[in-house]
Design brief:
The structure holds two protein chains of two kinds. Chain A is α/β, with parallel strands linked by helices. Chain A contains 13 helices and 14 strands. Classes of the chains: A alpha/beta, B alpha/beta. At the A-B interface, helix 3, helix 4 and helix 5 of A face helix 5 and helix 6 of B.
Chain lengths: ~325, ~325
C-alpha cells in the first residue's frame, strides 16, 4: 500500500494498463512531450514513445473521432479532453458515434474507448475551466459515465474503463487532483463500473454524492458525529447508468436523503436520483428528498467570491444534514 | 476498334467486365428500390444513380481483403464491390431482422459489416472522416499496410470533421484516401452556395496532401487516380484527397422533390451523358462486351435481384423487444 494523490492514481492506472496491453494508448492535446497540462500523462511519452502518448492537433472532434476509429480497429484509446468544458465540439463523435456504434450495427462493431475529462470548479478557472458536464451525457444509452472521488477508485475504475468493451466518459474532478490523497494497493486491481459504494456508515441522514462534494460531505459528517448526528454517505462513482439498488438501499437506511453535487440544479443528475428514490423507496422516506447543488447560472464565475458562492460549501452541507436530522 | 484504355492502367478485360457488372447491379438495385418505395413496400430510398462509375472505379482500386471502407449513404456501388450482396442490402432496405448492416435499426443506406471491413455509418454527415484517420493510425501503429478509404459528398467538405480529420491524417501522414463524390448538390443547395474555393480538391493544400480532381463519370479515370493514391498511402506516402465530379440523377431521397430547386432540363441533359451507358459503349467499342454477354449479365442481375426482393419482403422483422438488445457489451450485463 502506498499513499498517492488522485492525479497520481490516474497516471499510474494509465502506465500500468499501457504496460499490460500494447493496444492501449493515450491521445490528446499536450499529453505527449509535456505530459498533460495537469501532468496526468507524465512520463508516458518517455516510457512508451510518441506514438502511444500521442500529441494531437488542437481538435477535440478529431481527438474523439480518431479514438472511435482506432477503437473500431481493435485498439484501446484513452482520449483526453484537456478540460471537460471543451468537450462540446466532440459531442457528435461521443454521443452519435461511440455511444451508438454497437446498437446501430446490431452488435457488429463496438468502441472500447475512454474519454477522460477534468471537470468541476474550485480551481479559480472561470466559466470555461470549471464546468460539470455530466448532465449533458447522463441520458445517452450506450455510454457510461464514471466519476470517482478517491485515488483507490480512480485507479481501479480507470483500469476497468480501459478494459471495458463499451465507451466510457471518465470524469476526473480537477480540484481533487492534488487535494485528495489515499491508500492504493501495489498489486493490480479493478473497481467494477456501475457500482456505487458506501463511504461512511450512518443511521440518521443519507448523503448521496460524488467527486469533490463527497469529500466535503465526509468532513461535515465527521463534525456532526460530535453532535451525535450519524451520516450515511453513498458515493455514486458511476453516474450513468446509475446503481439504482445501492441508491434505494442507502435511502432506505435512514429515510432522510440529501442529494449533493456542484452542478446546476434543474435538469441535473440529482433529479434522476430523486426519481429513483421516489419510485422505489417512497414509503421508506421520513422527510422530503433534499438537493444541495450549484445555482442555475451558466457556470462558476471567475472572481473568487463568486466562485465560492457557486459551489456548495461545508457549512451549507453541514446545515442541510442537520436540518434533515432534526426534521 | 476503339483505343483500349483499361489495359494501360493494369485492368484485364475480366476486371472491366466485373466493374461494369457491379455498376449495373447498383443501378438496377436502386431503380428497384424506387419502385418498391412508390408501391409502399419500403419506406425510404437514398440513391446512387449517376455516381456508380465513381463508386465502382474507386473501390476496385482497393485491396478488398485488407483495406477498410467507410462509405456514405449513396455508396451502393462500393459496398457491392466490397462483398455485400443485393440480398444483404435489400434486407437492409426492408429493415428486416436479418439485415447484416443494422438488424433493421438504421435507415436505408447506412451500411456496415465487420466481415467485409465496411465501417458502420450514421446520418450526421462526415463523422466517418475522423474514423478513417483513426483506423489508419491504428493500422500504422500495428505495422499493417492497409489503407482506410472514406467516402462522402461535397456538402460534407464543409463540416468541421472534414477539416479536423484531414488535418490529423496530414500531420501524421496516415494511409487514408479521402474520396469526395461531388454530385453538385447538398440536397437543394448548389455547389456555388457551398464552396468559396474553386473545388473541394483545392482544400487539400491546407492539410499537406495532394488534392486530385477526377472525372467521376469515368470509372477508369477514377480507378487510376485512386490506385495511385492507394499505392502512395501503402508505401508510407500519406493521405490523398480526391474529388470525383459526378451528378445526382434523382432527388436527394425518396422524400425530396428536386423540381423545387433544379431545372428538370438539367437532369435530362445529365442523364443523356449517363456514365453507365458510356462505359457500356466503351466496352462494346473495344470488343470486351458483346450483346450476348450484356444480355447474360442483365439476366443474372435481374434474377439475383428478384430473389433478393422476394426474400427480403418475406423475411421477418426483429421481435419488438429485440430493440432492447446490444446497448452495451453483453458480458457486462444488458440493460
Amino acid at each position: 500500500m502506498a499513499e498517492i494523490t488522485y492525479i497520481q492514481a490516474v497516471n499510474h492506472a494509465l502506465r500500468e494498463e499501457m504496460e499490460r496491453d500494447e493496444k492501449v494508448f493515450v491521445l490528446g492535446e499536450d499529453v505527449g512531450k509535456k505530459g498533460g497540462v495537469f501532468r496526468a500523462t507524465e512520463g508516458l511519452y518517455e516510457q512508451f514513445g510518441e506514438s502511444r502518448a500521442l500529441d494531437t492537433p488542437l481538435s477535440e472532434s478529431a481527438i474523439a473521432g480518431v479514438a472511435v476509429g482506432a477503437s473500431l480497429y481493435g485498439l484501446r484509446p484513452v482520449a483526453e479532453m484537456q478540460f471537460a468544458d471543451f468537450i462540446m465540439t466532440a459531442i457528435n463523435q461521443i454521443v452519435n458515434e461511440a455511444a451508438k456504434m454497437r446498437y446501430r450495427s446490431n452488435n457488429d462493431w463496438f468502441c472500447p474507448l475512454v474519454v477522460r475529462a477534468p471537470y468541476g470548479a474550485g480551481v479559480h478557472g472561470g466559466l470555461y475551466h470549471s464546468q460539470s458536464i455530466e448532465a449533458m451525457f447522463n441520458s445517452v444509452p450506450g455510454l457510461k459515465i464514471v466519476a470517482p472521488s478517491t485515488p483507490y477508485d480512480v485507479k481501479g475504475l480507470l483500469k476497468a474503463s480501459i478494459r471495458s468493451d463499451d465507451p466510457i466518459l471518465f470524469l476526473e474532478h480537477k480540484r481533487c487532483y492534488r487535494l485528495i490523497k489515499g491508500e492504493v494497493p501495489d498489486e493490480d486491481y479493478t473497481v467494477p463500473i456501475g457500482k456505487a459504494e458506501v463511504k461512511r456508515e450512518g443511521t440518521d441522514v443519507t448523503v448521496i454524492s460524488y467527486g469533490l462534494m463527497l469529500h466535503h460531505a465526509l468532513e461535515a459528517a465527521e463534525k456532526l458525529a460530535k453532535e451525535n448526528i450519524s451520516t450515511h454517505i453513498l458515493d455514486l462513482r458511476t453516474l450513468y447508468p446509475l446503481d439504482q439498488d445501492a441508491i434505494v438501499e442507502a435511502a432506505a437506511k435512514t429515510g432522510k436523503v440529501l442529494l449533493l453535487n456542484e452542478d446546476n440544479r434543474e435538469g441535473g443528475l440529482l433529479g434522476e436520483v430523486a426519481a429513483v428514490i421516489a419510485e422505489k423507496a417512497f414509503f421508506e422516506l421520513d422527510a422530503p428528498i433534499q438537493r444541495l447543488t450549484a445555482p442555475d447560472i451558466p457556470a462558476a464565475p471567475y472572481a473568487l467570491p463568486l466562485e465560492k458562492f457557486f459551489m456548495p460549501d461545508k457549512d451549507q452541507i453541514e446545515r442541510a444534514i442537520r436540518e434533515l436530522a432534526e426534521f | 476498334m476503339k483505343n483500349n484504355r483499361h489495359q494501360a492502367i493494369g485492368l484485364s478485360d475480366n476486371d472491366v467486365l466485373q466493374m461494369y457488372r457491379t455498376m449495373l447491379q447498383a443501378r438496377t438495385f436502386d431503380e428497384r428500390c424506387w419502385l418498391l418505395n412508390r408501391s409502399g413496400k419500403i419506406p425510404f430510398v437514398v440513391s446512387c444513380q449517376g455516381q456508380e462509375a465513381a463508386q465502382v472505379g474507386a473501390s476496385y482500386a482497393l485491396d478488398r481483403n485488407k483495406d477498410y471502407l467507410l462509405p456514405y449513404y449513396r455508396d451502393v456501388g462500393m459496398v457491392l464491390t466490397f462483398g455485400m450482396t443485393t440480398k444483404d442490402i435489400m434486407l437492409h432496405n426492408f429493415a428486416k431482422a436479418e439485415d447484416p448492416n443494422s438488424g433493421g435499426r438504421q435507415l436505408a443506406g447506412h451500411f456496415g459489416s465487420r466481415k467485409h471491413r465496411i465501417v458502420s455509418g450514421s446520418s450526421p454527415v462526415t463523422t466517418q472522416v475522423p474514423h478513417a484517420a483513426g483506423i489508419a493510425l491504428a493500422a500504422k501503429m500495428e505495422g499493417e499496410d492497409l489503407v482506410a478509404f472514406v467516402s462522402f459528398g461535397e456538402g460534407s467538405s464543409n463540416q468541421g470533421d472534414f477539416h479536423e480529420g484531414l488535418n490529423f491524417a496530414g500531420v501524421h501522414r496516415l494511409p487514408v484516401i479521402f474520396f469526395c463524390q461531388n454530385n453538385k448538390y447538398a440536397i437543394s443547395v448548389p455547389l456555388s452556395k457551398q464552396l468559396a474555393s474553386e473545388s473541394v480538391a483545392d482544400r487539400a493544400v491546407g492539410y499537406g496532401m495532394p488534392g486530385k480532381k477526377v472525372d467521376g463519370t469515368d470509372p477508369l479515370e477514377v480507378y487510376a487516380v485512386v490506385k495511385e493514391a492507394v499505392d502512395r498511402a501503402r508505401s508510407g506516402g500519406g493521405p490523398t484527397l480526391i474529388e470525383a465530379t459526378c451528378y445526382r440523377f434523382t432527388g436527394h431521397s425518396s422524400d425530396d422533390d428536386d423540381k423545387t430547386y433544379r431545372d428538370p432540363e438539367e437532369v435530362v441533359r445529365e442523364r443523356s451523358q449517363d456514365p453507365l451507358e458510356r462505359f457500356r459503349t466503351y466496352l462494346f467499342d473495344c470488343g470486351v462486351l458483346t450483346e450476348e454477354t450484356d444480355a447474360e449479365i442483365k439476366h443474372s442481375i435481374r434474377e439475383e435481384l428478384d430473389e433478393a426482393t422476394e426474400y427480403a419482403d418475406k423475411a421477418p422483422f426483429a421481435a419488438p423487444e429485440d430493440a432492447l438488445k446490444y446497448v452495451y457489451a453483453q458480458t457486462e450485463g444488458e440493460r
